[in-house]
Amino acid sequence: MSDGAGEQGDGGNAHTDEAALSARLKRLSERLARDQPGRASDGAGEDRATSASGYAKGLRLSSELVAGVVVGAGLGLLTDHWLGTAPWGLIVFLILGFAAGVLNVMRSAGVVPGRSLDGDASRDRDN
Prior knowledge:
This protein has 127 residues and is an all-alpha fold. The chain has one domain (2-126). 88% of the residues lie in helices and 0% in strands. The protein is built from 3 helices and no strands. Helix 1 runs antiparallel to helix 2. The longest helix is centred in the middle third of the chain and has 82 residues, at 2-83.
C-alpha cells in the first residue's frame, strides 16, 4: 500500500511540474512568435545599412589617402618642371603627399584630434 500512496504523491508533483513546464513553454513560444517577424526584418535592414555605411567610410578614407599622394606627386612634378631639379621634387613631394594622406585618414577615422567623418571638428578642437 505504501507503494500506491507514493506513486500518487509523486504523480501529483509530476503533474504540477508538467503543468508549470507546459505554461512556460507556451509563454516562450508566444514571445518567440511575437518577436521573430519584427526582429528579422529590422535585423536585415540594419545589417544592410551598417554595411553600406562601412563601405561609404572605407571609400572616403581610401580616397583621402589617394588624393594626398596624387596631389603630392603633382606638386612634385610641377616643382621639378619649374626648378629643373629632376627627380628630387617628385620624391620629396610624393613623400609629403603620402604623409598628408595618412594624416587625413587618421583625422577622418577619429584617431588623431581634428576633422572626423561626422564633421564635428569644433568638438575636437575644444577638448
